[in-house]
Design brief:
mainly alpha, single chain, 11 helices, 76% helix, 290 residues
Length: 290
């Protein structure tokens, strides 16, 4: 059971590196949904993978230990976020964002060194910085000089946005170099890859229907990418299932990307047709009245 879950999780996580840029032209509500869904999928997917791959699920102590580590990480994350926000708002030197980013990486590395769920820190840090305006109602937060901090956060977002774009570009460049035709056209795994993608879409459609979430184009924005490859490479040989190989991972990534591409294309086309019909209707009405 542990090996099965360990091998299945790399196919279950949505890649935020692909999903978030793909939702750029959607409505504000849909764009926010995709951003939070894919980001939380990345973070909790990695945490769940580490928990399953590194712990014995039949031991109750592993659950207690993981719960304690999670509580410790939440407390550390809040303290570290307040400290970093204070530094971000108070440093007057022209070079301030790179040291903040390096401190974030340092805290993340130390947490990983002590086997703590370090991604919880990234989540809390991002949520607090992204909702500075909501913190003004807390009097003790006003000591951080929130007005100037809000301005610095906007600049910080621009720098991190460009850095993320660079990382994504390097990943796709390396990904293209690593693709081999023999692995891509492997018929032994192609049927399984199609089954995984179709099953994921069906489950996603059922959940969206039950939750009354708009199906199109949200249904198709569930790509796999860098995070899935990293999780796949993290599986130790002793837990690896022969069927779960590089060919299967590449095919799932490319098929999910194709579903995303065609889903967005046809959704935009349908919206354009609806808009044209509305324009024609509004231009015909005055002529009918006349």
């Amino acid at each position: 059971m542990t090996d099965a879950l360990t091998n299945a999780l790399p196919f279950s996580v949505i890649s935020s590196a692909i999903a978030i840029p793909s939702a750029r032209h959607l409505s504000t509500a849909n764009r926010e949904f995709i951003t939070y869904e894919s980001s939380l999928s990345d973070i909790f997917g990695v945490i769940l993978f580490n928990f399953i791959a590194l712990n014995q699920l039949n031991q109750s102590t592993s659950f207690l230990q993981s719960g304690l580590q999670l509580l410790i990480m939440i407390a550390v994350s809040f303290l570290a976020t307040v400290l970093l926000a204070f530094l971000l708002g108070r440093i007057d030197h022209k070079i301030k964002f790179i040291p903040i980013i390096l401190l974030v990486l340092l805290i993340y590395s130390v947490a990983k060194l002590y086997h703590l769920p370090a991604l919880i820190f990234i989540l809390i840090f991002g949520v607090i910085l992204g909702n500075i305006d909501e913190l003004k109602k807390f009097r003790w937060m006003n000591k951080l000089n929130l007005y100037s901090l809000n301005t610095e956060v906007i600049k910080f977002k621009e720098i991190t946005g460009e850095a993320t774009f660079l990382i994504r570009a390097l990943f796709f460049l390396l990904f293209g170099f690593l693709i081999e035709t023999s692995e891509l056209l492997n018929t032994d795994t192609l049927v399984w890859a199609l089954g995984i993608v179709v099953t994921a879409l069906i489950i996603r459609a059922v959940i969206f229907k039950l939750a009354k979430i708009e199906l199109f184009p949200m249904l198709f924005i569930a790509p796999r990418g860098l995070i899935n490859i990293l999780l796949f490479l993290s599986i130790v040989p002793a837990q690896n299932i022969p069927l779960v190989n590089k060919s299967l991972m590449l095919q799932v990534i490319l098929l999910s990307a194709a579903v995303l591409m065609f889903g967005l294309i046809f959704t935009k086309k349908n919206k354009a047709e609806i808009t044209d019909e509305k324009v024609i209707t509004t231009t015909d009405e005055p002529a009918t009245i006349q």
